[in-house]
Design goal:
Layout (H helix, E strand, L loop, with lengths): L10 H12 L7 E10 L5 E8 L2
Antiparallel strand pairs: 1-2
Length: 54
């Protein structure tokens, strides 16, 4: 990519460009309903995924 004529941008520059065009996204409203549980290989729960409120 560095040898091409394409512009190289950092992830921060890409984020700023996207927010300039589309605005900052609203924070998702979540319900209390767990729809998925992420477990480590030993069975330890390391995260939960909650349903997005409509």
């Amino acid at each position: 990519m560095k040898g091409s004529s394409l512009p190289i941008k950092t992830i921060h520059e890409l984020k700023a460009e996207a927010e300039k065009i589309y605005g900052k996204p609203q924070k998702a409203r979540l319900t209390d309903e767990v729809i998925a549980v992420i477990k480590w290989v030993d069975g330890t729960v390391i995260d939960s995924v909650f349903r997005v409120d409509k």
